Fold:
Amino acid sequence: PSMRVVRLAHAPAREAAAALAKAGDALDVTVTADSASNALVLSGQAAAIARVVAIAAEIDRPRRRVLLEAR
Structure:
């Protein structure tokens, strides 16, 4: 088994880990959140980890912001 750390820029690690848990289970990858560094720690087979990393990249996107203008 391999291990990889994926640092997140936008999504909170705990939320991302929860969202990735089912995909990780299906691919036999363990997903653990490290809140201190806002990162995911992945362990499993390298090919499966690569698939989870791709999904994590889709989750870790900037959230849309709404601009309100007061008059």
